[in-house]
Amino acid sequence: MTAALRTIITPTAILRLVLGWGVFIALQFTSSLLAPPAPMPLLVTALVVIIAVILICAFGVVTEAEHLGNRLGDPYGSLVLTISICLIEVILIAAVLLGPGDHATIARDSVMAVSMIILNAVIGLCLLVGGLRHGALTHNRTGVSNYLVMIVVFAALAFAVPALIGTPDGAYESWQEIPIIVVTVGAYVFFLYRQMGPQAHEFTEAVPVGAAAASSSSNAGTSHPSPAEAAVEADDEPQGIVEILSTHRVEIILRLVLLVATVLPIVLLSHDMATLLDDGLGRLGAPVALSGVVIAMIVFLPETLTSLRAAWNGEIQRVSNLCHGAQVSTVGLTIPTVLVIGMLTDQQIVLAESPINLALFAITLLVSVIGFAGKKVTAVQGAAHIIIFVVFGLALFA
């Protein structure tokens, strides 16, 4: 028990908790100084500190989720990580939505920004890095196609359908929201059931890392593994999820507790961040959608590094599990949650996107479907995704 605590409650984990909770407590004593309109230098300083601490805590959440993911194995591990990221996003969007000012489009702006970051910037970089280092990479086409099917449906319900059947502003009518929430959540739950149950094997690496080298070595000679080697290989057979939960129960519980303790400062600091961000962007006359981009960058930066590390190691299916899985969770959980918040607080949630963003998102989906339909993905496809993301950045300030 003591050894487990030492490996989980590390000095870095303690430092994150101290920073997160310490800054929150400090803000309780200085809130009057930061009340709008606060002096610009003080506002910027406070905003930088809060965002930095939220990022540090977010990295802590992702670190614990990664440890849990490594223990549970894919697809369970990637699912823990993506849902943790989704939780942080919902917290930040809710903080802005419930804060001062009119933020009817914050959910749309944030989810669209996250979508373009995930599907173009991150996947583009991962394909570029993985393709340049390992050449063409083989993915599990059935698993990726499942992700893409859900992304297309959820994206249509979130960004396109409200413009066609909703209010003139692009929000669902109040009587339309409940069916959309039920259908979206129901489809997401069914997807998770299939991903973690009957179709779990479709979300594992098509070609395990190092398998190609091992295969070529075995083809070069006619030697066969010795009985001792065969015994080791038998011992390396992956455990089932029930056996893992039973064997590593203490570690899993401790990491979940630490994950929650690290998430709470994000929840508490997000309200102050939303207030200061609204004040600062308003004074600068920045585009309204920029606050959604800031949230998206905070939310997905930690998982970006995890995805790039997987690409560097040639784990292209893990990249898909992290990125496409995060996209499915983001639209499948965030949009229904925000709609529920809007219903409870009697706020209008505008979801319909602009023509340029809809066009760029449609192009993104087309490139994704065509690219991942092949047996392998390459660096060229990564470059195409990066180009789309650059155009999205230009459109944001157009």
TrEMBL record:
Span of domain Sodium/calcium exchanger membrane region: 44-196, 256-395
Keywords in alphabetical order: Membrane, Transmembrane, Transmembrane helix
Residues passing through the membrane, by range: 12-30, 42-63, 75-98, 110-132, 144-165, 177-193, 252-269, 281-301, 322-344, 356-373, 380-397
Superkingdom of origin: Bacteria
MF term (GO), any: sodium:proton antiporter activity
Membrane topology: Multi-pass membrane protein
Subcellular localization: Membrane
A GO cellular component annotation in the UniProt record: plasma membrane
A Pfam family of this chain: Na_Ca_ex
Name of this chain's protein: Sodium/calcium exchanger membrane region
